[in-house]
Amino acid sequence: MEKILRGILKYKANAQGNFLVRWANKAEKLPVKPPILFVSCIDSRILPTHFCQTSPGDMFILRNAGNVLPRANYSEGEPTQLSCEVVALEITCNRSKVEHVVICGHSDCQALYAAYKHYTEEEETSAPLKRVSEIIHGWCRTHGVEASLNKVQDTSNRTSKGAAFKFNIGSTPQEVFIDPKNEMALLDKLSQVNVLQQLEHLSSYRSISKRVDSGQLSVHGMWYDVSEDKIYWFSRQRKGFIEICADTIEEIIASCKRTVRPEEEQGDLGFKKPESVGTAIE
Ligand SMILES: [Zn+2]
């Protein structure tokens, strides 16, 4: 704790003055509406504001274990629970109308490792461990980690371009090839597949899918390689992840330019509410 408490003193001495002036001017003129929602893992090595070099006010950030989002109506007839992720989507995508959502996964993800262990190790027997397993199991089911695991362990989809997958992102199925050189660890392949699974989950919300299809909202996948300190971008054109570097940056920026069609009336977030919940969102 001493490190972060002394850090606050350093911040007050070195950085706060500039920040306060800039923010005060901005706040007088504009409501604070960042155009980006960035979703990342809680892993302490993943600092989006650091590797994207952003400033306060540039983007919303949602962090959780495994950079996941629950699927709307994640199983037939079963309501989506009102989790903090759903509320974050409501505030950022529905009310603030962000223009981009970025889902950022990373290598060596311990949340995904916990999921992998849960499905591959023998059943736990002692009560506390069983309870933890139930938590992991529920999270895997509602947030698509189980689906990602099933996809990545299916070896029947291997092609000369890498393992082939299909994801429904927006209204168009997207073909993707993961690990073309067949050299990644299973956990890291799982992490890349899981990023795309979360883009599919985003599209399962009715209002988000409408905004994606009309060009109002773009959804993107990113992946951070912790050991190499390299950042990769999911390229629809290339059907896979490519490194963000001087050679690719213009191509990636061009692919992010939006073509916006007339906006349709947006409704609610588009998930089925539990019967016991009030009518605020649905
Ligand atoms: Zn992680």
Mind sketching the topology for me?
Blueprint: H1 2-14, H2 16-29, E1 36-41, H3 48-51, E2 60-64, H4 84-95, E3 100-106, H5 110-120, H6 127-142, H7 145-153, E4 158-159, E5 162-169, E6 172-178, H8 186-203, H9 206-213, E7 218-225, E8 230-235, E9 240-243, H10 249-256
Parallel strand pairs: 1-2, 1-3, 3-7
Antiparallel strand pairs: 4-5, 5-6, 7-8, 8-9
Helix pairs in contact: 5-6, 7-8
The protein binds zinc ion.
Zinc ion is lined by residues 41, 43, 66, 106, 109-111.
How far apart are the termini? 42 Å
Helical/strand content category: alpha/beta
Bound molecules: zinc ion
Task: Please mark out the parts with pLDDT under 50 across 5 or more consecutive residues, or reply none.
Answer: 276-282
Question: What does the average pLDDT come to?
Answer: 83
Query: How many DSSP-defined strands?
Result: 9
Order of helices and strands: HHEHEHEHHHEEEHHEEEH
Which architecture name does CATH use? 3-Layer(aba) Sandwich
Largest sheet: 6 strands, mixed
Name the helicity range.
40-55%
Count every helix, treating DSSP H or I runs of 4 or more residues as helices: 10
Strand order of the largest sheet: 2-1-3-7-8-9
- What is the CATH topology assignment? Beta-carbonic Anhydrase, Chain A
* Total domain modules: 1
Structure write-up:
- The chain is of the alpha/beta class and 282 residues long.
- It has one domain (31-256): 3-Layer(aba) Sandwich (Beta-carbonic Anhydrase, Chain A), CATH 3.40.1050.10.
- The chain is 40% helix and 19% strand.
- The chain has 10 helices and 9 strands.
- β1 (36-41), α3 (48-51) and β2 (60-64) form a beta-alpha-beta unit.
- α5 (110-120) crosses α6 (127-142).
- The radius of gyration is 20 Å and the shape is globular.
- Bound molecules: zinc ion.
